[in-house]
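Duplicate of #3305? Posting structure anyway:
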């Protein structure tokens, strides 16, 4: 306890404020560094793969609207809200996949300090709220309340930035259609999309119920029957399928040290039916993939 008081005395008001500012600066630096590394080392390297660009929908209107907003120089509300309101890792990686300027992205990410500062302040206030005086009462009674206010403010800013980002994306899609259309389309992704769409249509044609053979229908029906039976067994006869076991129970005491003892005979049957449905469904999918390639070749 003596060390706590020494720490508080040495901090004083200017001292702990400087500590909060220092931690804010460190947090901001780490955020900018991690965003830059994710953009340059991960996003830009992934941008070489057509499948990755196709997966993120690089040619979609939404991605083009995001490129139009985030690719602007300097600071503006829409750009900042997307960069600090969007998910951390996906946003940085997407900026790398779109080959945006890392300097401009760092400039747009700088306002993250409005989230980092109240978070660091909240941590300091939580610590101060934990200190007691000689009578056992809080040394700083208002610290706990202030920490809660900081946490609430941070949550409001974070959630609000996500809403504002969605608003600006939607508005850009509606009002900047010509600018979005003017953004160059990724030809490799467009060709991949067209090829996949053709394969998708071929798969839909060869797997139509009236077109498949009796044995293929039997495989699909058996898969549905197995998964349905498994679900009903677990849903309505769970006590006959599994040994009662809670998260706080000991495996050694309740299950004799063997996790397999969790399953009763009916439970093993349910697991077997579930596994069988997966195998049968995969057999049907593999058959459909082979058939669609043959169909596509002969339908050219």
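Output from current build:
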């Amino acid at each position: 306890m003596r060390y706590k008081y020494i720490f508080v005395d040495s901090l004083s008001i200017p001292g702990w404020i400087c500590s909060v500012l220092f931690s804010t600066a460190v947090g901001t630096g780490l955020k900018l560094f991690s965003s830059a590394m994710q953009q340059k080392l991960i996003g830009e390297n992934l941008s070489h793969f057509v499948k990755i660009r196709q997966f993120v929908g690089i040619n979609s209107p939404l991605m083009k609207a995001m490129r139009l907003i985030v690719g602007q120089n300097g600071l503006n509300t829409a750009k900042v809200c997307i960069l600090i309101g969007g998910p951390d890792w996906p946003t940085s990686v997407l900026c790398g996949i779109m080959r945006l300027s890392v300097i401009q992205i760092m400039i747009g990410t700088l306002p993250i300090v409005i989230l980092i500062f109240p978070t660091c302040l909240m941590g300091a206030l939580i610590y101060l709220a934990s200190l007691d005086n000689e009578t056992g009462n809080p040394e700083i009674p208002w610290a706990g309340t202030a920490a809660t206010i900081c946490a609430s403010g941070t949550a409001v800013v974070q959630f609000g930035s996500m809403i504002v980002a969605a608003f600006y994306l939607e508005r850009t899609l509606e009002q900047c259609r010509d600018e979005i259309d003017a953004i160059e389309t990724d030809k490799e992704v467009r060709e991949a999309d067209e090829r996949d769409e053709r394969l998708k249509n071929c798969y839909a044609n060869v797997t139509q119920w009236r077109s498949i053979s009796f044995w293929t229908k039997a495989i699909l029906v058996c898969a549905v029957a197995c998964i349905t039976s498994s679900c009903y067994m677990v849903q309505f006869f769970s006590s006959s399928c599994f040994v009662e076991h809670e998260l706080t129970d000991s495996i050694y005491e309740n299950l004799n040290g063997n996790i397999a003892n969790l399953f009763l005979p009916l439970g093993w049957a349910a697991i077997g039916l579930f596994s069988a449905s997966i195998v049968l469904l995969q057999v049907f999918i593999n058959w459909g993939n082979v058939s669609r390639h043959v169909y596509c070749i002969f339908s050219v």
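Confirmed duplicate; merging threads. Residues 1-11 have pLDDT under 50 and may be disordered. DSSP finds 14 helices and no strands in the chain.
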